[in-house]
Write a structure and sequence with these properties.
Largest sheet: none
Mean pLDDT: 92
Distance between the termini: 8 Å
Structural class: mainly alpha
Oligomer: single chain
Shape: globular
CATH class: Mainly Alpha
Length: 75
């Protein structure tokens, strides 16, 4: 699994944990909901700047979105 896929899974999981919609996350991060959806699907790679905006909107460290979890490493 590459970093783009790891970020997609972590982003979706964290957003769901916070019971936040893609639209809410997009608004908080200053992005379009369509772009957030594309990142979550792994269709596009987020820049470091966008990674920071998303992490801030979620209240986490940017690196948390790039960490391979135990669940992911078994895939």
């Amino acid at each position: 699994m590459d970093l783009k896929e790891i970020m997609a899974v972590n982003l979706r999981r964290k957003r769901h944990d916070l019971e936040m919609t893609q639209e809410e996350l997009a608004e908080r991060a200053g992005l379009s909901a369509r772009y957030v959806g594309a990142i979550e699907r792994g269709d596009v790679s987020a820049s470091v700047t966008v990674l920071g905006q998303i992490a801030e909107a979620l209240g986490i460290e940017p690196g948390d979105l790039l960490k391979r979890s135990a669940r992911l490493s078994k895939s």
